[in-house]
UniProtKB/TrEMBL annotation:
Name under which the protein is recorded: C1q domain-containing protein
Organism ancestry: Bacteria, Pseudomonadati, Bacteroidota, Flavobacteriia, Flavobacteriales
Source organism (scientific name): Chryseobacterium elymi
SUPFAM superfamilies according to UniProt: TNF-like
Amino acid sequence: MKLNKKYILFMGLGLSNLFLAQIGIGINNPNPANSIEINTTEKFIIDKTGKIGVGVAAPKMAIDLRNGANGSMAIGMTNQTAAEAGAGAMRYNPSPAIGVQGYIEYSDGTVWVPILPYGKPRIVVMAEKTNNNSTVFETGLWPIGNYTDGIPGRSSAYLTSWTEKLDSDSGQPRTNFDPATGEFIAPRSGVYYATFTFALAPNQVNTSSGQNQTEAIWEVRNSSNAVIQRIKTNNGYPQDTGNAPNAVIVGSACTASLYLNAGDKLRPFVWINVSWDPDKRPLLNTGGYNVLTIVEQ
């Protein structure tokens, strides 16, 4: 069967007009022009630029739900990795993290990044030390270097070789804390609450010289490794313990709220002078005495 050319031209013009016209479902005069409009309890609109509006007459975003009290959006769950989903994808995670029962995450292309209530991610680091490893890093009574048999007296010594209990960002594992060195690097600028304690094994304490002290110190260095801040807590003891078998546990703790720039380094160190002679003092390593915690505020 042959079709008349005029008839084909007429069909083409008719289809062209149909494609350029509005499409209305349940409505006689859809508006705006060049859109699909569904008249249910709320309007569903796709404008000529491809923007979608639900209950919104003139959508301004790719998907616009800002129609007042009923403008919520449901986000589903997926087992895809962040890399599989791609940067910019979003999902709902029903698993609890730090007391939060479910939260939204977005993919940065590598990991899923949680968005907790108020949009505030949170860094949490916890660690415990149950050995005598330390590193003297400034000129003092003892030479600069690593020690494994106690804290050198009258010398600035980093506490090293920690056992990491937690290093997370809103429930997701991270590597902001290096348990080998005890150094924390801030992944983003903000206020951090930091505390650490240490205790020396029971022994005699000489205070006759009037210089007995134990110092717990937080040190902040910038990304160029220059010292920009040190916060100290000093504990002194007014009386000698006397000779053996008299022995006491001495130690100190330092707690501070610090503003760190992204890339700043936070690290605990100690300075002690509690011996009858300038010897090294082992830590009390029975557990629970030598601990640190860092929490983003």
